[in-house]
């Protein structure tokens, strides 16, 4: 049974408290918070104040995904804003090991995200230091994109690396996740699914989350 982390990027920002309370009632395990700076990715989402606002109403841990340049400047701020998981991008961190250690020192779980073109093999030397690897299955920056089929191969390879290294981290998939690709993703080795548009644009988000949660 996978962990489910609905992305509030797809929520109704004018009714954010309502949507967060809906997620509280759901079978979701986390709330995924996408932070975008308009530089690392070609879009701007929201920052610490919105993260804090979500955290005030959330009864599930916040899974914060920093799609920003120089994330080290803001790790403490997002931890104070309620982040339980802080995921940074491999492509944005020249001193990744130091960044990961800092996240852990702050009391959060460190995650590392990979863009679609970035090979999983580049994480070989840090696998035992991280709690989560987030594989982007779309190009980051916008919701509602089409799932990239090469993701399955990357998940299988990463799961193999996990077995061989004896590391203990979650494999999270973000982008274009739905009820059709969820089963093969789990079969390939994924543990955690992020879903935004598929949840919030469905007629019954609670039922949609339940369907994802009970995927085998």
Number of alpha- plus pi-helical segments: 8
Low-confidence stretches: none
The CATH superfamily bears the name Aldolase class I
Strand content: 15-25%
What fold name stands as the CATH topology?
A: TIM Barrel
**What count of domains describes the coordinates?**
1
**Which structural category do the helix and sheet elements fall into?**
alpha/beta
Radius of gyration: 16 Å
Biggest pleated-sheet summary: 8 strands, parallel
**Number of strand segments:** 8
Mean pLDDT score: 96
Q: In sequence order, what are the helices and strands, one letter per element?
A: EHEHEHEHEEHEHEHH
- Broad shape: globular
The CATH architecture category equals: Alpha-Beta Barrel
User: Strands across the major sheet, in which order?
Assistant: 1-8-7-6-5-4-3-2
CATH class: Alpha Beta
Intertermini distance: 6 Å
Helix content: 25-40%
Give a verbal description of the structure.
33% of the residues lie in helices and 20% in strands. The chain has 8 helices and 8 strands. It is globular and about 40 Å long. The mean pLDDT is 96. Strands 1-8-7-6-5-4-3-2 form an 8-stranded parallel beta sheet. With 216 residues, the protein is α/β, with parallel strands linked by helices. It has a single domain, classed as Aldolase class I (TIM Barrel, Alpha-Beta Barrel), CATH 3.20.20.70.
